[in-house]
Amino acid sequence: MSFYRLIDHTADLGIEVSGDTPEEVMARAAEALFDLLAERDGIRDAESRAIRVEGEDPADLLVNFLRECLYLYTGEGFLIRTARVRMGEKTTLEAELRGEPYDPGRHRIRMEIKAVTWHGASLEETLEGRERWKGRVIFDV
Amino acid sequence: MSDIPLTQIDEFRWKIEPTGGMRVPGIIYSSRALMKTADEGVRQVANVAHLPGIVKASLAMPDMHWGYGFPIGGVAAFDLDEGVVSPGGVGYDINCGCRLVATRLSFPEIRESLKDLVAALFRNIPSGVGSTGVLKLSEKEQRHVLVEGARWAVGRGYGTESDLETTEDGGCLAGADPEKVSPRALERGRPQLGTLGSGNHFLEIEVVEDIFDPEAARAFGLERGQVTVMIHSGSRGLGYQVCDDFLARLVKHVRTLDLNLPDRQLACAYLHSPQGKDYLAAMACAANYAWANRQMLMHWTRETFERTLKKGPRELGMRLLYDVCHNIAKIETLPVEGRERTLCVHRKGATRAYPPGHPALPDRYRAVGQPVLIPGDMGTGSYVLAGTERAMAETFGSSCHGAGRVMSRTQAVKSSRGRAVARELAERGILVMASGKETLREEIPEAYKDLDAVVDVVHRAGLARKVARLRAVGCIKG
Question: B255: which chain A residues are within 8 Å (Cβ-Cβ)?
Fold first, then answer.
């Protein structure tokens, strides 16, 4: 739980993540999403999936990236253990997501996350020393 | 509490005067006590007032709480020529709603079998996170579901024709076009038809505890001690994906409109634009899927009652009292300042509440008004209300939808640490079975506003009148 902070939203659930770079924030946000969704310790990094995402600005890119990560589970039954992100030109990114297909016998799903929302989403550089990049996003649960 | 200035108009209404980019005022129906839990919802009522073509006011019901984009409990209507439709004003769970099934049974007749009934319902009705159904739906068959809604289910033997008469809009929203639904949404929806879901969705056996309006109760076929079943579910992954797909499209689209919205989640499209029309066509598909879903869940409930109690359908008399949706945008004709207008009404966590005499109501309810179903949280039971002229005149024929959360899910889980929630409920005479361990703790009764207080405001403000209160005795949750 240490790599992200929960934002308490009355109906829903949000996360706040920090990192030295925007890439690190993105990767940690994906890992946090799956930490909320499933018991992440039980997910092995047996396989990988590659995705490419675009956004209009950094916050939009963060939301779009997490939407794709969530779809890997809701649409394809793939659980993410770790994420590696490389930002491209303008607001695009490529990510390598390691994990494994959901197996009801071995994995426990902790909660249903319906969607990643744009409400209050942000990704920005702050003035504080280490881990200057901060990202925030709210999930509809 | 937000810093937005509020003026109290009367005992149950608070007004936000239009400032900045607000095109109309905001009006919140509430009480002094409930306003204390109003949180960020107030700001969101003001935000919705920024949308183009909004008519009269941005409204909130007394169960209002902080959503994303629109507040939960929000109602807003838009002019068809100048106004917009916003997927965030409907929500991810398109046509989340509930239906109430009345029976001929009285509580003493099921008391001995209650445990078996709850266990059998839990077995027969797929529930839980990502649960999949027993149905193998082909792509072609799914198109029929999306276009026909509850009628598809009835045609396939899940219930009877008369169920459709007591479903809002006959369980089928016009204008559904499966071509507008993405392959992702279709794929997610296929295995999930006929499942309850998780979170706040539930199926509850409830007993009529109080009757407030004997005439309306008679018309609805309710009497003290009677056993009923409340089913609360929606459009599952298909609806979430439709909302997600269109929000992403409209977040981009809205930049071309120069609207300067205070929240991205308010992304929208003009109702007359191709983008707006596409969303409404896809949303109608999700709404129809949800109606088919609730119709199937009800059918299995009937079967389970028959088998467990060893009684025939006639003896049980399980009749659909009514089905309402509380996350939807619909084109409706409503009176606005003395003139009939056709508008796009968004109800996000709000229920349609049509008055006596309205042509949309089935004959047997026409004299008393539309049944308005207000499910409480787990274990508190529900209310049945009836629609009023006042709601038609003031709130685009809308009322509240439930209790509304006051505690976040994490707070609820924290505050219930070490408690055996199922046992606590059992001690109060409510048998609960849930698939998820954390669901019970997230949904503890303290996490919600007091249902009695919410309904009291609705009743006294005249947005619907109290007909009956139902007490929960058995509940299955995802």
Answer: 56
The tens digit of pLDDT for each residue in B387-427 reads 999 999 999 999 999 887 778 777 888 888 878 888 888 88
- Taking each helix axis as running N to C, give the angle between helix B274-309 and helix B236-253, from 0 to 180 degrees, rounded to the nearest 10: 170
Nearest partner of B99 among B147, B138, B146, B153, judged by Cα: B153
Q: Model-level pTM?
A: 0.95
- In B132-211, which ranges are continuous DSSP H helix? 139-148, 150-155, 161-165, 183-189
Q: How many CB atoms lie within 10 A of CB B125?
A: 23
User: B182 is written with which tokens?
Assistant: 């993405």
**CB–CB of B251 and A119 under 8 A?**
no
Nearest to A140 among B68, B255, B406 (CB): B68
ipTM computed for the complex:
0.92
- CATH of the domain spanning B7-477, picked from 3.20.20.80, 3.10.50.40, 2.60.40.10, 3.90.1860.10: 3.90.1860.10
- Which residue from B69, B129, B411 is facing A111, i.e. has the nearest CB? B129
Kindly report, residue by residue over A114-137, the tens digit of the pLDDT: 999 999 899 999 987 788 999 999
Find where tokens 């389970």 sit.
B304
Determine contact: B93 vs chain A, CB below 8 A: yes
| Backbone φ, ψ for residue B470 (5° rounding) | -115, 140
